[in-house]
Amino acid sequence: MQLLHVHILAPPMDQQKSGDDLGLYLTLVNNSDRPQELDGVSTVHAERVEYRASPSTPGQAVNVTIPARGTLSLQQGQNRPHLELINIHRPLGATPIDVTFRFTTGTTTLRIPVLPLARGAGSPTPGHS
After folding, report:
1. What letter would DSSP give residue 75?
2. Backbone angles phi, psi at 13, to 5 degrees
3. CA-closest candidate to residue 45, choices 5, 12, 84
4. CB 115 within 8 A of CB 12
5. Do 61 and 42 contact (CB within 8 A), yes or no?
């Protein structure tokens, strides 16, 4: 499994607050001959990480399949599926954070950059869902 273009979008530090929800975006590439499942994502910086089929749908437990020799995009965009950090424990600022991804084949932890949320971006608005 390859995890590409992984990042979190957040408002400027002075606009972040504990309890915010922040979008987590990435592209998953499965180079194997078997489908792989991403069945969990976690970080100590948020209460939980959820999967959202679109910004307007309720969050659910992370459980997505990446087809054999396939790609799954969970990138920013209007009405696109993505992951979301729910109820951050403190403002993150622009400091990268560790996030753990659990796959069929094992777990991997990445230090993910926190990038500034561009005005008008098609990402979820921080706050409780």
Report:
1. -
2. -50, -45
3. 84
4. no
5. no
